[in-house]
Amino acid sequence: MSKKNRILTSIKRAATLGWKNFHREGGLSFVAVFVLMVVITLSASIFLIRGVAEIVIRDIEDKADVTVDFELGVPEERILEIREEIAEEFEVNSMEYISREEARTIFIQRFGDRPAVMESLEEVGNPFPASLNIRADDPYIYRQVSDFLETEYAELVYNIDFYHREEVIAGIFSVTENIRRGGIIVGVVLGIIAVLLVFNTVKMAIYGLREEIRVMRLVGSSNLFIQSSFIAQGAILGAIAGVSSFVLLFLLGFLIPTTYNITLEVNLQQYFLGMLPIVLIIQLGMGITLGVFSSLIATNKYLK
């Protein structure tokens, strides 16, 4: 028999023994598959909503901006010079210049259906200042820019709304950072639970088959061959849990309303169902990896 055939035969025998171990530990295997399925489903759900969450987070962070209003007499050229100076000194994402005329147009678009407001506007002319709308990834940058303008251009600046919204802006960035960290922590905790569960399942299988293991050693079976059957058992547990988790998520996907959108850019059901092929690969990979890893730990510790 060639080396390749011997390897294939060994794999087939290990898989057969792993399947028998899976059946022999029926109740424990069912519990292991169920908990693994829950772990994989929750982990896959975190992956699925991550894309939507990132869009929502970016949308929230886009609202965490700072507007600098300049005195009415400050010429446009001077404001644009200040904008260039800010861009050179600080790491900001963008700065939008809004002229007095653009500010007036925005106001009319918002309140044009109120005759009393429009009459008042006609009487006073254009009371709106030119402004810079600043966006950054770090709330500390907003404070640096605000303090810089207050120090260097106090006579040109009419108002900086950062000081009125500092706590709100800091709160937004804190919440979004906690969301990102929370997803990582939940994933790690779920992974540890899954590993411990499969570990104990394989441990019980080893104890239950200890007499058979002694006999297999007496007839010349290698330690690697005996170990491989329990690794196959862990892989089977993980594969069944992964497929079960996929079926569950697939069915849940049709319960998501098609008309409900978190933002105008994302339809939850379309996004959810469109990602399922990738999720199937991830779930199978995660289930088998957790099962094999846990089995390796258990067999290395208890097979002796």
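Second entry:
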Amino acid sequence: MAIQWVRSLLFIIQMYAMMLIMGLACFIPSLLSRKAAIASMRLYCAWVRWTASWMVGLTSEIRGAVPQDEVIVASKHQSFFDIILLMGALPSGKFIMKRELMFAPILGQYALRIGCVPVNRGKRGKAIKKMAEDVKSGAQKPGQLIIYPQGTRIAPGVQAPFKVGTYVLYNQLGQTCVPAATNVGVFWPRKGILRKPGHAVMEFLDPIEAGLDQASFMGRLEETVESHSNALMREAGFDLDGLHNLNQRA
């Protein structure tokens, strides 16, 4: 375990060092061209996946049909690694992100360049409606709009409600929603240094067609994302049933 912790630390150091190196090297081209910004970020995602595979023994896989059109991608969020997998897989992904990230050196400029949408957490409902109006009117860049329905990173086995913001987007934009499930949190936690060896999966699931009412959409989205994420976590060896039994006894 001590050796794995050291390997994890070295992996994290080089990961952020490469973020700085690649960010600076590609900064000018990315400012001039959105395609260059997207290509730079996807190249960085490929680097992280590759170095994770041999430095800490964490391989990764994309399953399902990767969306190519303008859709909403509603994904389970467990750690930074699912951001890497989504951004690396989608041809033109753009995230709903915390407004504070706009001011992060280099990263914030890349995020805005590819079309990420900053949201004020304190005024989330109003901000999401405004963002939906901007997307619908063409003010935002085209591509796959990525939202985390639970609003934040959720550790494996922890239950958290799905927020209505995803439906607001789905309803106002009139777009198909593609749910996505993952098990990355089993190996790459929300916090801490240790990265565990294993096989992380990001899975794109069957699309939810436009036009459903709020109750039908939210029920289908939550059931789909949660059931498939639970299946992936069990596949990864996570004792989800044991954790649920322990919580019930507590």
